[in-house]
Amino acid sequence: MHVFRSLLAGLVFLAAAPLAAHAQQHAEMAAGETHAHVAPHGGVVRSASPYHLELVAQPTELAFYLLGAKMSPVPNKGMKGSVMVQQTNNATATLPLALAGDDHLTAKLPAGAKVRTAIVTLTTADGKTMTVRFEKLDEARGHQAVGAAYTCPMHPDVAAAQPGKCPKCGMALVKKS
Predict the structure, then answer these.
(1) pTM
(2) pLDDT at position 172, please?
(3) What is the distance between the alpha carbons of residues 87 and 25, in angstroms, rounded to a whole number?
């Protein structure tokens, strides 16, 4: 019976391997993470056990989405927190997080700020506090094409001025809305 279970477990593992490899192609794995993450809003995702936190950086603000099981959105009702940002000029600022919509929080950036690192402290409605660090944010956005009008649906960091194919997955680039 033990041999049968071992054989069955091996077959299940082999059958799942191609699926896991495919999922890894469309996800990001940060240093220190134990698994890759798919960013539902096109940002950067970090583990915040038992949750995940996604940072979407815009020129004037940072948006944070708390994600639960299967990367589903967690309602922001009752959440509070702050983010300490380090800019590319090494200046730091601690910014309050404000509720936005029903599923995320935002922090308004100082004028002209270019964020390198963001350390978020977030308390959920049930009183759980987490701290999550996002690093090298200036590098993540630095390779995007200036004035890019096309992007990959699976890799928002891939951008181009004209139509073409994504160098990471081969999908056709789509016009930004």
Answers:
(1) 0.65
(2) 86
(3) 30
